[in-house]
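Pipeline run #58 for the internal structure catalog. This entry was flagged by the ingest filter as a single-chain record with no existing model, so it goes straight to prediction. Upstream metadata was stripped on purpose; only the residue string is passed forward. Reviewer on rotation: M.T. Logging verbosity set to normal.
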Amino acid sequence: MTEETKVSHDDGHAASQHSRWTRARQWLSRAKSSAGHERHTLELIGKSTLAAAASWFVAHDLMAAQTPAFAPFSAVLIMQVTIYQSLLQALRYLAAVCAGVCVQGVLGFLAGPDLLTFVVVALIAMTIGRWQRLGSQGTQVATAAFFAFSTYVSATGNPQRVEQLGQILELVGIGCGIGVLINVTVLPPMRYRGAEEGIRALAHSMCDLIGDIAPALREGALDEETTRHWRQRATTLGPLVGQARSALHMAVESRYYNPRLLLPGSRHEDFSGYQELVDALERVTYQLTSMARTLHHWPQDESGEECRGFLRDYAALLEAVARVVRHFCDIEARRLTSQVYELRRATEAAQEKHRELVARPRQIPLGDPSRPYGILLAEATRLMDEAQHSCDILRHTVQEATESGELQEQAAR
């Protein structure tokens, strides 16, 4: 390696190290400034560490157990992002461990600790582990059976074997209990903002895509590379819909068995409006994807003043639709009343642009299926239908919250 190459390599390594430290500082800054993914991650790490330490203390220091690691392992394993999931996974894990230990215990006492017994234990344990009710904890049946078999083999007599197998179940129960207790009492996880953030992220991506398409249509810049990029970006909206649904599901799930709901001023949203809103935005992504595909296949011989006029009007409609979707980028339960009013005005303006697009007389062949104009008009109509439906969903949600008094409580907080 020459001196210049070595210097270049060292500089590149230093730059890479600096970039890592920069990203780490940014990550910590986000964790400190907002209750987002970064802060939730730190909270989960801290609670898992606390649960593991408490479980180890009980198992090792207080009980003097032969295999104390079962307790902290169990506590960390069932530490989930919601209390409901912690309880569910704890029950499934307990069931899986009990099944594995019982299978080994029965076969061990009947057939003895030899290789053939181990094979039969493994076969039965892995078969039980396929039971759908155990979910992701199904693999723990075989794991528990193998650990139990190892404990059984190392014991010197039947009384000691029974005692140690029972201790495994006891340690697992202690670990699960401590894990659930800490998750319930130490910063119980709530995900109300997560539902809104999922919708905001989806809406931002939709606005960015529409915001890039509209100016290009106005200028008639429909080259192959640009339209291909639009189509690729439109396909990324699908995963964002899935993330929004996941965030919404977690927000709903975080209410179950959560002690925070017993505190004065706690929020009790049912998120039914958000669920319908995500459905509507998902359908908007379908229309945007179809529209991007149509523009990607735009015929090169489509030109002329009528074509340019159509594209300019279509761009005006897309800009109006972007103003509608932009309101979802800032959606917040406490501001829904004012947001719904602004959203209704934006939707009415977009409907007016849609009527102008459809009603304006043109010489272009809208009824020709081999030409793109009729398809684009149909997509525009569906796009407006979903935008209007989204507005109606939020208006209905606000109306119900106002009648129940919930909206006034949120505004007061």
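catalog note: The two ends are 65 Å apart (CA to CA).
catalog note: The first helix runs from residue 3 to 33.
status: ready for reviewer M.T.
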